[in-house]
């Protein structure tokens, strides 16, 4: 008997949508794999007419952009999906948000036609992070000043293949400290620990510099060690300007009139 | 009146940043329930004493979770064993065992129900009790503590954990959890007269709840049990198992839990029948879940429809102990495959016997999915041994079946066997190599391709209570290991075939400890406690299991006893011996079990009562039950209006 051939007829995508989603509260403890599984199920439950890859094991066409680490919340995660039938982006947003668990929230959905030209990944140049720390703002500010004074701070990151040294300093474009509100966010600050908020803009590099790497660098240069794990949130990611301002990667962009650009596959 | 216990989450949260896979501790799964604490009288914490990824998909816990939460007088929350990294942090920061639904302290509940699918979860029970702040021993608990209740297949011999549990329930849980809820609700409404002892007595009085502390066990000088007798009034001499007779009345889980975290089964499961009368003599599940009760096609169709809509799963597993034996499996497979052909939903049949298998059925099941691998479980390597275990499949039947499978496009066959079966010799085990080699030859011939795979998986046999092999001597780990070594050599003897045969097996040591915990009596409790104090955790995981630790614990804890590890495991029992579980009634007649054991030794086969006259195993008359099998000729009902395509029309 002949070998099996792929039975699904390959259908070219007719529409691409870019999604911004948030990872909030308890669900910041979901890993990227956890999110991807939940999202693919949500697509099915919401009846989104996905385009599938060709081959023996068809997969829905989804492009994920570098996700926030496990344990880190985010207001600004992005991905792109390809549909086999056209759908109204707002309707897709509502349908997906209704079936995703609270805490994995669809912020908005935009048709690629309305987005800046080029791939989604090209739009992601930097991230704006906010870290809430159980620490005295003054002590944190001093550590930050020492960090910023350096041109390079090598920190050790454990990987599956052992440890490697990466520079946590060069990618950091902005780093600022403000006192936090007492009694908020970071759970159970100790009686004598303060509460500080650190915001930073970090350029997208490879390997990505994550909040933990910057905290490790602060420990290295200034012995800074908060009494509780930091609570980190990605507030934005997108193109970055000279002033270190992170712009919206899905900002509305008028394209030339006429027949729509061919859909990439 | 109770007041709602505070959420532990704010105290747990800082710890989660420091542990692996923190998502498993945060709850919030799709279809999880959360009920107002003060709105109900009875609060259940349901525990599966293994890792979340194993425990979450467990059908028993999901069924009871839904059944209890649907009641107006009860709520149920779930908890799972925490990994050692979090256990350590919880001890350091004084965070007690919590439920994942509302992160309430387990100690605040009325009942801690623990489902034991395997005895290797016992050490995790002790961790959970201690983390909960409960006294380890049932007799040390006070009125303020939850009732610790064991269920699941291992509860058919709860004697090894008799010191640690207040009660155990045998059999199907759907109805008895309602009875227990009502007893507790009434007791609380009356102001808890007589305290914990009275509550346990009322539960025992129902006849369906075993309270170990109400029974005394006496031993003879040789170490064997003389008698197990109730030590107070209102307590039955024997406790009976529970049997749900109409599965269509209990279509649970209706809305299966879908975790964010990865779990061992990424699919929706529908139990298409319960019980099995194939009569495989090693199989405890088949013995203790009799009689066979089929779910109807309309009932299955409705559960699949509801469950898929509620979960978004892509695969539906049709569960049972031997799914191809459903009297209408052919129409069921065809109708489901037709219905979901467009939706990329695949069907799977997790347990399939070679002789019940037909290729048309397999093709139906793979229609919407992949045609990758087929699994068969001959269990015994030789025909002689398969007669002993009453799982008769001839060598040529198996080869014919796999030949058909390969010629239909299947490329991989998995074969499951056991090693250490009663009467087994080296030659029986070496037959596995011959079978695997013949499978490869047959596959190559059928396909004209050399790219054929077969995997041989071998588990150590563990004699279980309430089976004909409950009297058997368990094979020593050295014997099992030596046979497996010879088998590996035999498989690899012909390299041209051997390189297409994978062999997976576990060494014999964990099986021996499972054997101790399976057929142990109350004296084994001290062994469990000792091993746990020495660090035993997650004993079902090879990276955590330590044979040496258990051997040492048994030596220490049984030092003053006339019995030891070997007495409980590698010793054959006599017909006269009082077995630790004789007072626990699975419905099986002990004389019938003994006769079947004798038949096994002579290789005499026993038929299936679904197709031949009753052979008097004892279950139906003693439990007031009967076999419920089709065919009924009923079909799937039409689908309700489709609710998909919620994303709206074209712009």
Q: Determine the N-to-C terminus distance of chain B.
A: 56 Å
| Count of helix runs of chain B | 22
Largest interface: A-B, 45 and 42 residues
Overall tally of structural domains of chain A: 2
The low-confidence parts of chain A are: 1-8, 183-192, 257-265
Radius of gyration of chain B: 25 Å
Morphology of chain A: elongated
Any idea what the radius of gyration of chain A is? 21 Å
Shape of chain B: globular
CATH architecture of one domain in chain B: 3-Layer(aba) Sandwich
Helix content of chain B: 25-40%
Strand order of the largest sheet of chain B: 2-1-3-4-5
Features:
heterodimer; A: 265 residues; alpha+beta; Alpha-Beta Plaits; 2 domains; eight-stranded mixed β-sheet; two-stranded antiparallel sheet; 20% helix; disordered C terminus; B: 651 residues; alpha/beta; Rossmann fold; five-stranded parallel β-sheet; four-stranded parallel β-sheet; 35% helix
Task: Note down, in words, how this protein is organized.
The complex is a heterodimer of chains A (265) and B (651). In chain A, strands 1, 2, 3, 4, 5, 8, 9 and 10 form an eight-stranded mixed beta sheet that branches. In chain A, strands 6-7 form a two-stranded antiparallel sheet. Chain A has helices at residues 32-45, 89-99, 120-123, 137-149, 211-222, and strands spanning 15-23, 62-64, 73-83, 104-111, 126-133, 154-159, 162-167, 172-179, 196-203, 231-238. In chain A, helix 4 packs across helix 5 (211-222). Chain A starts with 14 loop residues before the first strand and ends in a 27-residue tail after the last strand. Helix content of chain A is 20%, strand content 28%. The longest helix of chain B is centred in the last third of the chain and has 22 residues, at 426-447. In chain B, 35% of the residues lie in helices and 13% in strands. Chain B has helices at 9-16, 52-55, 59-70, 84-93, 122-132, 176-189, 195-205, 284-288, 297-311, 329-339, 359-366, 383-388, 395-407, 426-447, 477-493, 495-498, 509-519, 524-533, 547-557, 565-569, 590-601, 619-623, and strands at 42-48, 74-80, 111-115, 147-151, 167-168, 215-219, 225-230, 239-240, 268-271, 273-274, 293-294, 315-319, 346-348, 373-379, 412-419, 453-460, 501-505, 584-585. Chain B has a domain at 9-240: Rossmann fold. Classes of the chains: A alpha+beta (265), B alpha/beta (651).
């Amino acid at each position: 008997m002949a070998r099996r051939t792929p039975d699904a007829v390959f259908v070219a995508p007719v529409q691409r949508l870019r999604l911004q989603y948030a990872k909030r509260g308890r669900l910041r403890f979901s890993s990227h794999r956890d999110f991807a599984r939940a999202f693919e199920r949500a697509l099915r439950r919401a009846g989104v007419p996905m385009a599938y890859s060709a081959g023996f094991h068809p997969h829905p066409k989804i492009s994920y952009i570098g996700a926030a680490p496990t344990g880190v919340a985010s207001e600004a995660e992005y991905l792109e999906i390809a549909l086999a039938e056209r759908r109204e982006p707002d309707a897709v947003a509502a349908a997906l948000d209704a079936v995703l668990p609270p805490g994995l929230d669809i912020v908005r959905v935009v048709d690629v036609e309305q987005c800046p030209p080029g791939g989604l990944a090209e739009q992601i140049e930097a991230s704006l992070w906010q870290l809430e720390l159980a620490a005295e703002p003054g002590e944190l500010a001093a550590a930050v000043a020492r960090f910023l004074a350096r041109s390079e701070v090598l920190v050790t990151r454990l990987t599956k293949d052992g440890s490697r040294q990466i520079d946590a300093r060069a990618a950091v474009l902005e780093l600022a400290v403000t006192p936090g509100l007492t009694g908020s966010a970071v759970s159970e600050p100790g009686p004598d620990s303060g509460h500080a908020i650190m915001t930073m803009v970090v350029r997208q590099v490879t390997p990505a510099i994550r909040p933990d790497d910057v905290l490790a660098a602060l420990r290295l240069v200034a012995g800074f060690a908060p009494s509780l794990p930091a609570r980190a949130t990605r507030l934005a990611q997108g193109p970055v300007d000279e002033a270190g301002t992170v712009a919206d990667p899905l900002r509305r962009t008028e394209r030339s009139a006429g027949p729509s650009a061919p859909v990439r596959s | 009146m109770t007041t709602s216990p505070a959420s532990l989450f704010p105290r747990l949260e800082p710890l989660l940043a420091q542990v692996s896979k923190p998502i498993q501790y945060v709850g919030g799964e799709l279809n999880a329930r959360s009920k107002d604490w003060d709105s109900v009288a009875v609060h259940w914490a349901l525990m599966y004493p293994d890792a979340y990824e194993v425990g979450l998909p467990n059908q028993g816990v999901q069924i009871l979770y839904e059944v209890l939460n649907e009641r107006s007088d009860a709520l149920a929350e779930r908890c799972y064993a925490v990994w050692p990294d979090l256990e350590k942090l919880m001890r350091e920061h004084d965070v007690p065992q919590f439920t994942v639904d509302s992160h309430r302290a387990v100690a605040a509940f009325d009942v801690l129900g623990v489902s034991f699918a395997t005895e290797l979860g016992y050490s995790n029970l002790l961790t959970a009790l201690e983390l909960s702040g409960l006294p380890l021993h049932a007799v040390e608990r006070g009125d303020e503590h939850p009732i610790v209740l064991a269920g699941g297949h291992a509860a058919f011999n709860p004697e090894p954990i008799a010191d640690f549990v207040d009660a155990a329930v045998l059999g199907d849980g759907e109805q008895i959890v309602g009875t227990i809820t009502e007893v507790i609700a009434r007791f609380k409404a009356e102001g808890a007269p007589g305290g914990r002892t009275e509550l346990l007595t009322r539960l025992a009085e129902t006849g369906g709840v075993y309270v170990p502390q109400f029974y005394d066990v006496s031993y003879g000088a040789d170490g064997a049990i003389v008698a197990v007798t109730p030590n107070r009034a209102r307590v039955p001499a024997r406790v009976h198992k529970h049997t749900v007779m109409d599965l269509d009345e209990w279509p649970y889980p209706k809305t299966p839990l879908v975790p964010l975290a990865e779990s061992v089964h990424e699919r929706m499961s529908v139990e298409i029948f319960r019980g099995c009368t194939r009569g495989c003599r090693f199989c405890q599940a088949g013995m203790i879940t009799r009689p066979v009760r089929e779910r109807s096609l309309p009932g299955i169709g409705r559960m699949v429809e509801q469950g898929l809509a509620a979960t978004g799963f892509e695969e539906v597993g049709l569960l049972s102990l031997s799914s191809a034996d459903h009297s209408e499996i052919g129409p069921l497979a065809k109708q489901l495959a037709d219905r979901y052909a467009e939706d990329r939903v695949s069907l799977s049949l997790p347990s399939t016997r070679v002789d019940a298998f037909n290729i048309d059925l397999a093709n139906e099941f793979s229609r919407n999915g992949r045609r990758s691998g087929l699994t068969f479980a001959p269990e015994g390597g030789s025909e002689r041994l398969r007669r002993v275990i009453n799982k008769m499949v001839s060598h040529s039947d198996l080869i014919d079946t796999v030949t058909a499978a390969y010629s239909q496009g299947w490329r991989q066959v998995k074969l499951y066997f056991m090693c250490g079966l009663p009467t087994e010799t080296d030659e029986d085990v070496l037959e596995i190599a011959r079978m695997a080699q013949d499978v490869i030859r047959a596959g190559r011939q059928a396909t004209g391709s050399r790219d054929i795979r077969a995997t041989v998986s071998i588990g150590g046999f563990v004699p279980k209570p309430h089976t004909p092999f409950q009297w058997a001597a368990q094979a020593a780990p050295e014997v099992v290991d030596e046979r497996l070594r010879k088998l590996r050599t035999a498989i690899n003897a012909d390299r041209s075939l051997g390189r297409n045969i994978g062999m997976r097996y576990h060494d014999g040591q964990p099986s021996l400890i499972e054997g101790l915990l399976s057929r142990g009596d109350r004296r084994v409790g001290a062994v469990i406690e000792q091993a746990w104090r020495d660090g035993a955790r997650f004993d079902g995981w090879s990276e955590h299991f330590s044979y040496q630790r258990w051997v040492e614990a048994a030596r220490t804890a049984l030092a003053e006893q006339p019995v030891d590890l070997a007495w409980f495991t590698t010793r054959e029992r006599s017909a006269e011996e009082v077995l630790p579980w004789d007072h626990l009634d699975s419905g099986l007649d002990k004389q019938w079990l003994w006769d079947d054991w004798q038949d096994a030794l002579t290789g005499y086969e026993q038929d299936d009562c679904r197709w031949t006259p009753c052979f008097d195993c004892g279950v139906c008359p003693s439990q007031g039950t009967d076999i419920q099998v089709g065919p009924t000729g009923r079909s799937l009902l039409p689908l309700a209006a489709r609710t998909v395509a919620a994303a709206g029309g074209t712009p």
